[in-house]
Design brief:
Layout (H helix, E strand, L loop, with lengths): L1 H12 L1 H17 L3 H30 L13 E5 L5 H7 L9 H12 L4 E5 L12 H12 L6 E4 L5 H12 L7 E6 L3 H10 L5 E5 L14 H23 L5
Parallel strand pairs: 1-2, 1-4, 2-3, 4-5
Helix pairs in contact: 2-3, 3-9, 7-8, 8-9
Length: 253
């Protein structure tokens, strides 16, 4: 139920969706000659654009700065790579993996596994789509890890999780981490605060290994790229709301 409600809620909560609704509503009000309401709705649409223009980059930078990349630990027992919405059906159709904003999670996970030859490499991801998918994200992970040269014997694939909570819950059940073990958690820097909060709730001590940074410590994205920053604002709001919902439902700490 939580998974379904979260997907439905996001359809109406995304700032870009609000912008589209405000624009359509403004046009309808003009069509029906309600100028005062049209002006108010148009101002609302402008407010969303201004928020994306001025606030998206600093908000995202603050979120990404919460977990900076640490130095390589002296010893690592395992690396967990969280799924990032990979389309494995497209992989089968094209015989090549999909490129998306989370692709570097896989590269960083592989790099960490190479750095620690005795560590276990875990990828966790089924499908985060509301209606599910024909093929799990783990198919894409297997393809990419194999192409990069990862030893299949050191590769653990979890193929049933649908969200971040299930990513970590199901992975912990598979690998059964022992007290004192060192585990790296590889996921996008924007996603890391939510993932680490879930790991704490599950009593799985993990070292954050953020990937796919979008902003730099003091810069890294131009504020006048309004369309890109509207997408970035969606990302920030999605992570904020996701973390809040997980905490309210007892899935994160």
């Amino acid at each position: 139920m939580f998974f379904t409600l979260s997907k439905i809620f996001w359809i109406v909560a995304a700032p870009s969706h609000w912008l589209g609704l405000l624009v359509v509503a403004t046009a309808l009000c003009l069509l029906f000659r309600w100028p005062r309401t049209a002006r108010l709705l148009a101002l609302g649409a402008v407010a969303v654009l201004v928020l994306a223009w001025l606030a998206a980059v600093p908000l995202a930078r603050g979120w990404e700065n919460r977990y900076p990349r640490p130095s390589w630990p002296g010893h690592v027992d395992g690396v967990v790579v969280l799924g990032g919405g990979y389309d494995s059906q497209l992989l089968r159709q094209r015989n090549a993996p999909q490129a998306n904003e989370s692709a570097y999670r896989l590269v960083e996970g592989f790099a960490a596994a190479r750095h620690y030859p005795k560590a276990r490499l875990v990828f966790t991801g089924g499908s985060g789509l509301l209606g599910g998918a024909s093929f799990p994200e783990s198919d894409t992970a297997r393809h990419i890890f194999t192409e990069l040269g990862q030893d299949p014997a050191r590769m653990i694939l979890e193929s049933h999780s649908r969200n971040t909570y299930e990513n970590l819950l199901f992975s912990k059940a598979i690998v059964e981490p022992k007290p004192g073990e060192v585990w790296l958690l590889a996921t996008s820097a924007m996603h890391m605060p939510r993932a680490m909060a879930i790991a704490r709730k599950l009593d799985w001590r993990m070292t954050p290994w953020p990937t796919d940074f979008i902003t730099g410590p003091g810069s890294g994205r131009e504020i006048w790229q309004v369309a890109d920053n509207l997408s970035l604002l969606d990302y920030v709001v999605h992570e904020w709301l996701g973390l809040a919902a997980y905490r309210l439902t007892g899935k994160a700490r």
